[in-house]
Fold each of these.
Amino acid sequence: MIVRILGEGQLLVEDSAADELASLDAKLEAAVEVSDEREFKTALEELLTRVRSIGTPVDPGTLEASDLIIPAEDATMAEVHKLLADEGVIPS
C-alpha cells in the first residue's frame, strides 16, 4: 500500500501492516475525539514513526494514488480532526 505523509512524500508499506496502522490510527482518532492534546501528539508521533520505520520511500517523480494519508508531524489537532471527519486517516 502507498502511504502519504503530508509534507514529506509517499512510502510503500507492506499490506500486512494494515492492522497495526489501523490500531495506531484509532489511538490518534480517540485523542482527537476527546481533545487530549498530549495524547494526540503522542499518537501522531507513534503513527509517523512506525510508518517511517517500515516504509520504503516512493520515487518523488512517480505519481501513485495514496491508499492512506497521514498528517504532517506539525499538524494541529484541528487539522487532524478535519482529516478524520469521514473515516479516519486509515479508512476501514
Amino acid sequence: MKALVYHGPGRRAWEDVPDPVIIDPTDAIVRVDAVTICGTDLHILKGDVPEVTPGRVLGHEAVGTVIAVGSAVRSVKEEDRVLVSCITACGTCRYCRDAQSGQCLGGGGWILGHLIDGTQAEFVRVPFADNSTHRVPDGVADEQMVLLADILPTSYEVGVLNGKVRPADVVAIIGAGPIGLAAVLTSRLYSPGHIVVVDVADARLDAALKFGADTVINSARQDPREVIDELTDGLGADVAMEAVGISETFEQAVRLARPGGHVANIGVHGGPATLHLEQIWGKNLTITTGLVDAYSTPTLINLVASRHLDTSAMITHRFSMDEFEDAYRVFSSPGDTGALKVLLTPSRG
C-alpha cells in the first residue's frame, strides 16, 4: 500500500510500505476512506515529538471501512463504516476505566502515527478496535465525521470541560486555528455570555466569527486585555483557552484570566513556557493541561448526527491521497492559503 512516511525532521514521503495485518485478536484493519492532517503532525515534522522515529506512518484521524477483524473483536465487523479515534483504549487499565484513555497503560493512548503506524495511508491497523472505533451514523458524511477523531473531542474535553465553561461566562480563546474554532463551536453548547477569539491572522478571525465568536481581536494591532476588561468591568475572562502551543500565547492566556478563573491549555507545546507565579500566586487560578481522552466522542457523534453541531465548514481544501505533499504545503501555510482543515480521499484511478 501507499502511506505518508516520516523520515526525520522536515522529511516525509508518500511511498510504498507493507500492508498492515492483524497482530492481536483485538485488532481491526480499516481501509481509509477519508483522512486529514493535524497540527500535531506539523509538530512531529518540526522534531518536537522525538518519540516518533523515522519510518513511522503519520496520522491519527480517519474515517474508513473495516475490512478485517481479529477473533476477539465484537462491536464492529467487516464492511462497517467507522471513525478511527486518535486515542486507542485498552478499556481495562486503571486510566481507561477512569475515562482517561489518553493515559492508557495497556498499550493504548495516543499511539497512531506516534508509536505505531498511523492513518495517513490506504489501510491502517487499529488496536483495541472495540474501544477505539465508532460506527458512523447513517446520513453523516465522512468530512463531518473525520473531525470527531481529534479536534472536536480535544477542544471539548481539554478546553471547554477542563475550563469549566458555564452559562454567561466570558470565554477568551487564543488561537483561531482548527482547535480554537472547535473550541468556539463546543463552548456554545454551554451558552457563554461572550466568546472572544484572539489571533494575528485576519482570515482566521473572520472564520471565528462564522463559527460563533462574538468578538475577535487581532493581537498584533490591539491589546486583548483592554477589550476583555471592557466586557468584564476589569476582572478578566472567566475562562481563557490557549489553542496555539507557544510560550507567548500560554502566558497571554494566564494574563487574560480573572482571579478565580480557569486557564485551559489545549495547544501542543514544543518548548517551555514561563509560569509567572510571582505575579499570579494570589489569583486563585485553576490551570489545566491535557491530552484528549476521547471519552466524549459518542456524545459529539450524536450532536453531529442530530445536527446540533455542524463541523463541515471546517474543511476548506480537498485532495486525493497522492497529493499529500500539496495537502501538507497548503495546511502548513494557513496565512497564505486560508486553510483550516484539509481532507484527503483515495487517489482516483
